[in-house]
Design a protein that fits this description.
The complex is a heterodimer of chains A (about 280) and B (about 300). Chain A has helices at about 5-10, 15-20, 40-55, 85-95, 115-125, 130-140, 150-155, 170-180, 190-195, 200-205, 245-275; strands at about 60, 70-75, 105, 125-130, 145, 180-190, 195-200, 215, 230. Chain A is of the alpha/beta class and about 280 residues long. In chain A, the strands form 2 sheets. Chain A has a 7-stranded mixed sheet with strand order 1-9-6-2-5-3-4, with helices on both faces. Chain A has a two-stranded antiparallel ribbon with strand order 7-8. In chain A, β3, α5 (about 115-125) and β4 (about 125-130) form a beta-alpha-beta unit. The chains are: A alpha/beta (about 280), B alpha/beta (about 300).
Chain lengths: ~280, ~300
Amino acid sequence: MKLAPPLRLLVDEEIRARVMKLELPFNRYGLDRFGVSREHLALFYSILLPFYRRYFRVHTFGIEHVPARGRALIIGNHSGGLPVDAAMVISALFQELEPPRHAHGMVELFAQYWPFVSELFSRAGQLPGLPDHAVRFLEDERLLMVFPEGARGTGKLYKDKYQLVRFGTGFVRIALQTRSPIVPFAFVGGEEALPVVFHAKLLAKAVGAPYWPVSRYLLPVPMPVACEIHFGAPLVFEGDGTEADDVIEGYVSVVRSRIEELIDKGRRHREATGKR
Amino acid sequence: MRIGITGITGALARLVAHRLLTRGHEVVGIDRRPWPDAPKGVTMFRADIRKRPAEDVFRTQPMDGLIHMATVTHFTASKEERYRVNLMGTRSVIEHCQAYGVSRVVFVGRHTVYGAAPDQPLYRTEAEPPLAGATFPDLADLVAADLFAGSALWRFPELSTSVLRIVYTLGPSQRGTLHNFLRGRRVPLVMGFDPLYHFMHEYDAARAIVHALEGGLRGVYNVAGPAPTPLSLLCRVTGRTPVPIPEPLYPFFSGRFGFPSLPDAALNHVKYPIVVDSIAFQKATNFEAEYDEVATLEAVRHLP
């Protein structure tokens, strides 16, 4: 499926070459059965590339913990007032793994209502966060990225930085049900990039977003701050997803504390190297 | 077997009739419209399924199975007419089958009953409730007919009833909902949205219907074959030009400048996908489509 001519100019040739290396079942139109389009992925990753390499200067550690093939859940913390952390984790999996892998995010529903955003996200496999989507992607041996804090996580204020808020539990049930390993990660730097001091509720309501971040310098635009992603060893739990809530919550807290450790490690590393 | 088809003069129904004949069955056709050059092996009766002469066909023509295809859409009939034909017609047909010992009924429905909405899973299974009554009120009669036909499964357990929710069909007949939408050279899209459309070749749809009947299938099943395709690509590959129209202006363009006329509520069906999971049907019948998405669209591109 070809892009419209002006969009074609945005595609980076090296990115296109990497997209060709993705092990996804594309048909002759360059589409998979979820409507993910090879050309749109090239556009998607080309747009993200300058942010990943230059703007946020993302450094990724522990990428070897992400399986080279097959299903896995990529689970981490939300860092910063906008889900740019999600975009950077997806970029990291694409840029640092060999061969590259494409991760499917579970997006807040409001994105479906926005023209162009809805279209690009649909073609890039970033679908609304419904359990049905998660299970289908995993059963198709894909990488699924989930932020169990959800919008509560991106909606954190700067004063609460790196404090994990309540985790949803659905991701553990889905991991058990589909027998998928959980790869934990920590994202550090996002909170410094967009220090949110206040939420503009009326504005959020007007545009249909869950919140509207107002930063120290008013604009909801992240600053060019160096970020780090730290992946940890995969976690595999016993069960089939039908366990009682207290069992599931036990597993969730294991994942959560693993992410907290990775955040501490990441923050120490980031301070020590003095990257801002 | 001796198989009745209601609404037999419809494009897909004719294909089903031909398919049944080549499989060695005998066909009884019921329609209010004539089929003058009906092939040998088809016995035609001109009757309205809601009226007495149609019941007389059931009384006098013993049948082993019935394929109910006499439904109409907003492209061809008024709201009142749609309720009469789709809902009351379905009721009569199923009751006649029960009364006159027709042991198998196939209700040919549509996947659009699920309704297009932004908060729905991409792949719909039969477990999803059909929402089209809310998202697109012009389909409420078809949703009701679909659910009513499904109720035969518990009301008349001695009948083998199958309700097929078939994706859009494309093919040489150039008939059906999607062909109506693609009628012009330019097709109106909503700017910034490009939903996946799910379709299959009409030959495959006819094969699937005959498959369900021959297997005495019971239950509600989604029927699809090829992978879904974004609407803009579907337009381009079939030789049309997709024209993105900003959403607030869409109703103004509807029915003007050679664009198809759509009810306002149809907008969701141009913005959001309706894609179905047809694994259950494949498992129950071993049906496999012969035309993939490329072959189906290529077949349409080369039509005059």
